[in-house]
Amino acid sequence: MARRMMSRLGQWSSYVFAVDFDTNSDPIYFALASKQSERPQVFRNVLADEMCYSLHVQSDDKIERAKFYGGLKKKLSKELPPECTILEMSIFQPNVKDSVIKGYFLKDASKSSATERVLGELLRNDPVYVCSYLCGGEDRQWSQHLWSNTEDGWVEVLEKYCVVPAEKPVHHPSTLNIINYDVFYSFEDAYKVLQQCVDIIPESKAVLELVDQRLESKEKTDFPVIVIEGLDATGKTTLTESLTEALGATLLKSPPQCLSPWRARFDTEPPLIRRAFYALGNYLTAGQIGQEARQAPVIVDRYWHSTAAYAIATAVGGKLGNLPQAGSEVYGWPGDLLRPSLVLMLSLSSQERMRRLQVRGQDKTMEEEELEANHLFRQKVEEAYQRIEGPACVTVDASPSPDQVLQQVLLLIREKCHL
Ligand SMILES: Nc1ncnc2c1ncn2[C@@H]1O[C@H](COP(=O)(O)OP(=O)(O)O)[C@@H](O)[C@H]1O
Ligand SMILES: Nc1ccn([C@@H]2O[C@H](COP(=O)(O)OP(=O)(O)O)[C@@H](O)[C@H]2O)c(=O)n1
């Protein structure tokens, strides 16, 4: 079915291809046409005389697509010649939600047949489409050639289209599939993902059992619920402990302690599955909050803001400006998740944060290592934190001494929660 769709330019013509040649600038956008365009060359300045290929995953099953795409990069890096550069590519309908098909674009300077051999194997055994790109003719125009398997095991070209430039879309393609791929806005949507993983990730069963026993939480709590957010090493642990003592409160965290045995396992999974795990963690914590907030104020170390902000920042490629605009539905609060009374985000300069990380000298999650290496990613997490609504977070300067930060936060809590 999908193959037939692909072979009809009529349907495929509403799609645009985006290749990330350089993560600090816009992708190169192109489309397919039966005739060359008069407009300038698509790959000018980014391709010389390398051989180029693209491959993208085709499967109607969301979990299979996510698992395969995640594993594909590792497989390609291992099997392709080292002179082959693997770039991220997506195919999408401009500004249409949930229309993205992810893939890779290969720039191959190896001049060996190894790449074609690897791609031929993939085409035979896996749910992928493979295309090659050629630049020819007097005007050096590019064309895309869709590969197909023949019955005797050889690869042939099924169809050939001209590659023509396409307009930059209003919404960066990486923002189109956030909902229900990277961020889940209801318990049911996250739960369904783990349910579908039970056969391939046996640990999902244990997580679902815990989640099934979660406590229900009412919309309104008797005592205030205060969430402390911020990047790693901004002082959340230090502050949540001193706050708990100062207010005679109960300290909780998301993901809750009971999920610890499975966290490392889910951290290795592709975003769809990993994010569903963290989303469910928030519902477990919500149950605990509901219970504890009957007796005393509750302090929570990370909650929904962390889940959504890290997920959005990881999903959105390239520049800060590619993030969905403030007010976008992706920054909304899930309708069925307990809302805290106040969310505070600890903010720190990158120099001071690095200094504290070094002093602490602990192991970091891969994502935290990426934060250190990638200033842009850190900026995107903080910006996403600030755009999340319902409740929005209040930014707190975390650079003064621990006691000064505590006093500042106590003042805020008294003012906003009348404690
Ligand atoms: N206000 C502060 N001033 C200086 N150092 C701090 C302050 N708050 C925390 N630290 C130190 O910074 C490091 C990170 O703090 P921590 O509370 O563990 O952060 P997080 O829980 O956000 O990762 C720790 O070594 C801690 O002692
Ligand atoms: N409520 C939460 C908490 C963490 N997380 C994820 O967990 C990572 C940070 O957790 P961590 O344990 O390293 O953070 P610290 O509490 O050590 O600062 C982030 O990268 C998020 O992806 C989440 O998604 N939702």
Automatic annotation (TrEMBL):
It is found in: Mitochondrion. The keyword Repeat does not apply. GO terms for molecular function: ATP binding; dTMP kinase activity; nucleoside diphosphate kinase activity. It holds the Pfam family Thymidylate_kin. GO terms for biological process: dTDP biosynthetic process; dTTP biosynthetic process; dUDP biosynthetic process. Keywords: ATP-binding, Coiled coil, Kinase, Mitochondrion, Nucleotide-binding, Pyrimidine biosynthesis, Transferase, Transit peptide. Residues 228-408 form the Thymidylate kinase-like domain. One of its GO terms (cellular component) is mitochondrion. Its EC number is 2.7.4.14. It comes from the Eukaryota. It is an enzyme of class 2 (transferase). It catalyses: dCMP + ATP = dCDP + ADP; CMP + ATP = CDP + ADP. InterPro entries: P-loop_NTPase (IPR027417), Thymidylate_kin-like_dom (IPR039430). Belongs to the thymidylate kinase family. PANTHER family: THYMIDYLATE KINASE, UMP-CMP KINASE 2, MITOCHONDRIAL. This is UMP-CMP kinase 2, mitochondrial. The lineage of its organism: Eukaryota, Metazoa, Chordata, Craniata, Vertebrata.
